[in-house]
Amino acid sequence: MTKPKILLVTPSFQTFILQDIAVLSEKYELIINTYNWKVKEFAPIYMVMQFFHILAHINQVSFVLVHFGGYWSFFPSLLGKIFRKPVYIVLHGTDCASIPELNYGSLRIPLLKWFCERSYDWASMLLPVSDSLVNSSNDFYQPGKQLPNGFLYHFPFIKTPYRVIPNGFDESFWKPDGSILKNGKTFMAVMSAEQYILKGGDMITELAKRFQDCNFFIAGMDKPNGLQIPDNLKFLGKIKPQEIKTYYQKSDYYFQLSIFEGFGCALCEAMLCGCQPIGSDVNNIPKIIGDTGILLKKRDVNLLEKNIKSIMELAKGGHMDLNPRERIIQNYSLENRKKLLFSVLPD
């Protein structure tokens, strides 16, 4: 039986996007449209190329699925509307945020914000990965000063229907390894160089100085130039999923200390591998962690130090009977995302 064709537009290929591609390929034949949108000076050229690529295929496909709002979502939404093809945009985080003081969020850039607004308005449906990307706020970064975000906060007049479909994770891949012994004193985080402050890298660096008998790992980035770090903190650079999994498996605790977090994919992966989560009280992080770890109420390294001492004492006394892995399996399985996607997307 011939599979229906769909056009999938993505600016990048993170693990969660590759996972969606694998899931969608079970039911559809995919035509993938992608360019290196990080090279911003080439964006006008890519948009012209994309326009003609979509024009050549739009009549062959049943619908269009776009990952992230951005320059790349403009023509798919416009041509989908013109040719009456449903267009779905999966929203992941930065495409719903504006935090100028941290140089974060697509919506802080006026031109890019305009392209996102037009795309969201023309789309058939928006598919945010958490309800916090719809409209939410928190004062984690600066107590007493709310930091509001979400696509409906920034674009309150948009009437496009939306459906929250959380990310899903493969528990058969992200799992503990019984042959790897945890020592009770190993901490890990994942972030890019651009996210060092956004995801609390500065706080982790300070903690490493205060907990000299513990080991700290940060994957996804190299050591920032000029930063003085203690010997017990290692920056691992960009490593493959298999290597990241090994570090999760030997880590006792995982940090997700974000000021803003679209979802928290690495947090879920780490929890599936048996890490106790330590996260900030923002966006979707409290829903992911539940009662299986610690939530930091404000961005205060002294409070974080106190909380870590508390959780390590509980673990040492054998009072930690929480199961972060089971929480992710129950709430964020890959099968659940697959079921929800297929319930929304046309046959």
Automatic annotation (TrEMBL):
EC nos: 2.4.-.-
Name of the protein this chain belongs to: Glycosyltransferase family 4 protein
Enzyme class label: transferase
GO MF annotation: an example: glycosyltransferase activity
Domain of life the protein comes from: Bacteria
One Pfam family this sequence matches: Glycos_transf_1
Keywords: Glycosyltransferase, Transferase
Gene3D superfamilies per the UniProt record, alphabetical: Glycogen Phosphorylase B (3.40.50.2000)
Origin species: Shivajiella indica
Segments forming domain Glycosyl transferase family: 181-329
